[in-house]
Structures are given as C-alpha cells and as structure tokens.
Amino acid sequence: MALNRYFAEANQVSLPVPNGAESGDPVVIGTGDLHGVLLVDEGDSEEGFATVQLDGAFLFELDGPIDAGDSVTGALVGATEHLDGDDSTVFGVALKSLENGETAEIPVRLSN
Questions:
Q1: Is 75 helix (H, G, I), strand (E, B) or coil?
Q2: Is 57 in a helix, a strand, or coil?
Q3: Is residue 17 predicted with pLDDT exceeding 90?
C-alpha cells in the first residue's frame, strides 16, 4: 500500500486563487493548467486560497456558434489566470450547441 498518497480522489481541493475570487468563478491555475470552478469565496478558510472543483460540468454563458463537443477556452468562459495560468488553453468541452448569434448558458465539462 502506498503510504505517500495525499488524496484518493483530488476533485475538490484547496488551491491558491486570485484575491477577491468568488464562488462560481472559473479559474486557470499554473502552467500545468488546472481548470476549475471555485466552490467558496477566496479567503473563506485561508487567505489566498479557495476550494476548487476540478471535475464535472458547469453552466457558462457563451456566444454561438458552438457545437456540442467543441473545445471551450478559459477566455471564452471568463476564467481568471493565476500563477502563470493560460486562459487560451482548453478549459472544457461544450455539452450543448448554440446557433450563430445565439447567447445562452450551456453546460461545459471541465478538462483536466
């Protein structure tokens, strides 16, 4: 048995986030490109940190055209970059389609 395992599953973890970040905010953290959504406000339990969900699907307002299965960048969902994060990388995958000119909240599955 591995004695150095830190988490059995690391899907909700406390990570450094930008000051003032709020629950529901998308964030791209570090050059390893962790993509997630804050579950609590920054500083709720420790200054500069928040619990971040790293899996699942979240609703984001997007502009069409977009097809289900299309890659969605951090910039498209308004992700905040932190610790050299890059919002031009793939943040997730659209789970619904939008027609050209259409704007709506659609689910985006996080990519990590």
A1: helix
A2: strand
A3: yes
DSSP 3-state assignment of 40?
A: coil
Is residue 57 packed enough to be buried (19+ CB in 10 Å), middle (13-18) or exposed (0-12)? middle
Close Cβ partners of 8 (under 8 Å, ≥ 6 residues apart): none
Place of tokens 């953290």: 29
Residue 34 clears pLDDT 90, i.e. is over it: no
Please give the structure tokens belonging to residue 93. 């995958």
Q: Which two tokens stand for residue 77?
A: 């969902």
What does the domain layout of the chain look like in residue ranges?
13-110
Give, in order, the Cα–Cα distances in Å from 91 to each of 1, 35, 45, 83, 101.
34, 6, 26, 16, 22
State residue 32's pLDDT score: 65
Secondary structure (3-state) at 14: strand
Chain centroid to Cα 65, Å, comes to 21
DSSP state of 79: P
